Amino acid sequence: MLKITDLHASINGKEILKGIDLVVKPGEVHAIMGPNGSGKSTLSAVLTGNPAYEVTRGSVEFYGKDLLALSPEDRSHEGLFLSFQYPVEIPGVSMVNFMRTAVNEQRKYRGLEPLSATDFLKLMREKRAIVELDNKLASRSVNEGFSGGEKKRNEIFQMAMLEPRLSILDETDSGLDIDALRIVAGGVNKLKSEKNATIVITHYQRLLDYIAPDFVHVLYKGRIVKSGGPELALELEERGYDWIKKELGEI
Amino acid sequence: MKQDNPNEILSDVTVNEYKYGFVTDIETDIIPKGLSEEIIRHISQKKGEPEWLLDFRLKAYAYWKTLEMPHWAHLTIPEIDYQAISYYAAPKTKAAPKSLEEVDPELRKTFDKLGISLEEQMKLSGVAVDAVMDSVSVRTTFREKLAELGVIFCSFSEAVKDYPDLVKRYLGSVVSYRDNFFAALNSAVFSDGSFVYIPKGVRCPMELSTYFRINAANTGQFERTLIVADDDSYVSYLEGCTAPMRDENQLHAAIVEIVVHDRAEVKYSTVQNWYPGDKEGKGGIYNFVTKRGMCKGDHSKLSWTQVETGSAITWKYPSCVLAGDHSVGEFYSVAVTNNYQQADTGTKMIHIGKNTRSTIVSKGISAGRSQNSYRGLVKVLPGAENARNFTQCDSLLLSSDCGAHTFPYMDIQNDTAIVEHEATTSKINEDQIFYCNQRGIPTEDAVGLIVNGYAKEVMNKLPMEFAVEAQKLLQISLEGSVG
Q1: What pLDDT does residue B142 have?
Q2: Count of structural domains within chain A
Q3: Strand positions, DSSP E, A27-186
Q4: Is A96's Cβ below 8 Å from some Cβ in B?
Q5: Which residue of B has its CA nearest to A89?
Q6: B438/A162 touch (CB, cutoff 8 Å), yes or no
Q7: Chain B: residue nearest A91 by CA?
Q8: Whole-angstrom Cα distance, residue B454 to residue B392?
């Protein structure tokens, strides 16, 4: 579904991604790990079309479409979802109103009629349960006054509402206590199917205990320097990143 | 990438043609241009006014002649030639229509285009509409039902004929013709408007609503609204305005006077979307309005809510004189300016009585190359023991070429007063827009959502039926504007 070829990207003229290659197929879970500043969040921002970043070389194909040619909203409509590391607060805009606009924009793109208020509220109730988000949160303003854990649960709730084909979870585990982590990971697992795929960006093995990856990639200085199976994550947890730097001849 | 330059996209979003630009082809009765004693006598005679009203007009005119147009506001106002304006235009109709069927079909089409068909208004919302089109009231609905309660809701001209004592007693009692340049001008030439009287102890069961609409080319519109709420009464009044597209600038200098007696409450809401001029700043309405209410009685309350998205230039300060003890004044405002619009708006809260309270919440939203100013005065007189004011004044900038300004004045003459002022200025957050984009919401709609969220505190104060309309209006007026 996703094919990234020789992707280079920069912010304010500084090159962060220096040639990424990655192929993701339906049903797969990929973990991207790496030390701070290696470009993990940049990759998610570039894939979703954050205007702050500039793609200088390479291509990204998503279900046969040139992803980079699409606007951020159309990437979303095509089924790309990002669970933000730092979800943004939008004061005065209720979650209900926000999600209804989002869902109906997606339906419009796909040539469907907007959902009626009743159907929408029903859908919201169903999906809310997946991440144990209570009704009060759902009627509050987008992320406003939410705790760290609530914000992350709210991200997964939105993922459930939009039913993406590819979800990128950007450090979804950061700032979560163990209970919240379990709820969030449980939500992600419930949404997993043969038809969709997940890219998990994380520092720690911890999250991968709950969301089992099929592939693990190490991102370092803007390149994927090592790929492997789940055992690679365990090795990183145990030994840190220095041995990889050694392999690269840096230490 | 399409989103390389968010500014470009944002500015695409705000450029939007005025939706209500069309001219209704109705025979109009216009008197010659210019302003003189003769013209004023002519207006007064055409309207069949009593001598005392003509006197009032002439005094105002004499005073106006001694004044110069004020220039203290943060506005660039082109020279206005007051002799080039026609001061009276009325659609030619035989007699006042008694039912909708008698209303000129062209007129009704105009209202239909605006989406305010009188039938709908009457049937669905239970709103009594006093539709003012080019100065003469076309149709007043629900009059009979209101009459049962003793509520008077009619055009100003009718009030002069039918309730001369009430009009005489209150006209100019809150906004004197000596108040300011535009108030003097209005007092001299006002054509029509609305009159409301709520008798003692009556809670008006429906929203009273007037749709103003300027139609004929080159006619200034000088409305005059007078609302009197007697002891223990309540009324909610909504003023909504749209004007068709014209190249020449049009002057609008209205007066709204409100008198609130003991324990009475008046809510006055305005949704204003007059033609703001085109993208280059050509044309548009000059909206120079004097609005003031007197909380005369003890425990009286007056609340102004305004959503201002239109007009090329707005000069407007709905104010409360809190004369009665324990009286309450409120001002909730959203002012949106885009392209080359200019707005200098705010309020005055004059605390005279003891234990008076006032609240000011102003949300300015500027886009394009517009200039948006808040100007407010909180005055506490020596006798106003324990006066309390809270002011919150926020500005949101949607482009880098627009301006937001705040001019708060405080004049506190009593030590027991507690006055608070909070102010913020922020630029629309690109992270918020991207967050919406990522969820599939295009930038245009994202801006609409964010701005409506920002203005929510004020929008919530609008009567339900109009809140939805106002929300759409906010979004429409900002289409193509963010940057």
Answers
A1: 63
A2: 1
A3: 29-33, 53-62, 65-66, 80-83, 90-94, 141-142, 166-170
A4: no
A5: B432
A6: no
A7: B453
A8: 13
Using CB atoms, which residue from A72, A81, A141 is nearest to B3? A72
CB distance B327 to B356 below 8 Å: yes
Residue B453 at interface with chain A, using a CB cutoff of 8 Å: yes
- Amino acid letter for position A61: E
Distance between CA B109 and CA A198 in Å, rounded?
Answer: 56
Give how far A120 is from chain B: nearest CA, Å: 16
Which domain covers residue A53, as residue numbers?
A: 2-247
Residue in chain A closest to B2 (alpha carbons) equals A71
**Residue B30 · residue B93 · CB < 8 Å:** no
CB atoms closer than 10 angstroms to residue B229 = 32
Closest Cβ–Cβ partner in B3, B429, B442 for A51: B3
CB contact at 8 A, A168 and A201: yes
CB–CB of A107/A131 below 8 Å?
no
Contact of A82 with chain B, judged by CB distance below 8 Å, is answered with: yes
Q: Which of residues 387-446 of B touch A (CB under 8 A)?
A: 429-432, 434-443, 445
Q: Which of A65, A86, A90 to mutate to test the interface with B (most CBs of B within 10 A)?
A: A90
CATH number of the domain enclosing A117: 3.40.50.300
| CA distances in angstroms from B39 to B32, B33, B105, B288, B333, listed in the order given | 8, 9, 31, 22, 37
Query: CB-based contact (8 Å) between A50 and chain B?
Result: yes
Q: Is there a contact between B160 and B53 (Cβ–Cβ < 8 Å)?
A: yes
At residue B455, the 3 state secondary structure works out as coil
**pLDDT, one tens digit for every residue, chain B (483 residues):** 333 444 444 444 444 455 555 555 555 566 777 888 888 998 888 888 999 999 999 999 999 999 888 888 888 888 888 888 777 765 544 444 455 555 556 555 555 555 555 554 443 334 455 555 544 444 445 666 788 899 988 888 889 999 999 999 999 999 999 899 999 999 999 888 889 999 999 999 888 876 544 444 444 578 899 999 999 999 999 887 555 545 455 888 899 999 999 999 999 998 887 778 878 878 788 889 999 999 999 999 999 999 988 888 899 999 999 999 999 999 999 998 888 889 899 999 999 999 999 999 999 999 888 989 999 999 999 999 999 999 999 999 988 888 899 999 999 999 999 999 999 988 888 899 999 999 999 998 899 899 989 998 898 888 876 777 777 777 777 766 654
ipTM confidence score: 0.96
DSSP B219: B
> Distance (Å, rounded) from C-alpha B143 to C-alpha B152?
8
- One DSSP character per residue, B52-66 reads HHHHHHHHHHHHHHT
> Hey, are the CB atoms on B3 and A76 less than 8 Å from each other?
no
Helix (H/G/I), strand (E/B), else coil: A111: coil
Residue A102 contacts B, CB cutoff 8 Å: yes
Instruction: Pick left, alpha or beta for residue A172 (phi over 0 → left; psi -120 to 50 → alpha; otherwise beta).
Output: alpha
- Contact (CB<8Å) A51/B434: yes
| Residues with pLDDT less than 50, chain A | none
Task: Name the residue in chain A with its Cα closest to that of B460.
Answer: A92
Q: Do residues B309 and B474 make contact, with C-beta atoms less than 8 angstroms apart? A: yes
**Which of B3, B432, B457 is facing A71, going by the closest CB pair?**
B3
How many helices (H) and strands (E) are present in chain B, helices listed first? 13, 23
Interface size between A and B, measured as CB pairs under 8 A: 95
Q: By CA distance, what is B4's nearest residue in A?
A: A51
Beta-strand ranges (E) seen in B367-417 are 371-380, 388-397, 403-412
A90·B449 Cβ contact <8 A: yes
Q: Residue B3's pLDDT is what?
A: 39
**Residue-wise over B9-37: b if at least 16 C-beta within 10 A, else e?**
bbbbbbebebbbeeebebebeeeeeebee
